[in-house]
Amino acid sequence: MKVFSSKYTFDYSWEECSTANWRKYCPWNDKSTHVIAVDTLSREIDPATGILRTERLITCHQQAPAWVISLLGGSNTSHVYETSYVSPAEKRVTMCSTNLTWANILRVRETVTYQPDLSTSSPGHERTQFTQDAKITALCGGWQKIRTKIEEASVERFSENARRGREGFEAVLEMSRRVFGEEREREEAKLH
Description:
The protein is α+β, with helices and mostly antiparallel strands and 192 residues long. It has helices spanning 14-20, 66-72, 144-191, and strands at 2-10, 35-45, 52-61, 77-87, 92-99, 106-116, 128-138. A 7-stranded antiparallel sheet has the order 1-7-6-5-4-3-2.
């Protein structure tokens, strides 16, 4: 098993990040063009805790080498199952995802959290701490050396995708702030 971990601070409030999170695969994000569809499977609020729990199926166009697809079977379409928990009381979003495609060969378990970064925030300038951890395990039989190579290559690719994902989410945050700001201005103008 190999582990990928990263932390990043977004220059946006938790409210902005937790709201924009639902739009991170929209056309504003030119870094997520590989995402074909995001289907919400279930969504419910726990009446005791107020936590919003959502299950989604994310369908992607993967860029696996042709020889891998011909060797292992399948297609260029992959599926990821995601469960998210939004706790307004704790100001915390936790998202857990796992690959469904080729899960018998390679298991990827990712956990992402968004929460206020109290150490660098100040009144009027709130920031959000983003933490990402992934455990990548090659399950294919054979020599340990082969499994290790598969895991290392997967971590490297995951790292590249994570960087692009952060860049794309920054674009979504920027556009959200601008669009919602313009809408607020229009609403305020109507009142005056």
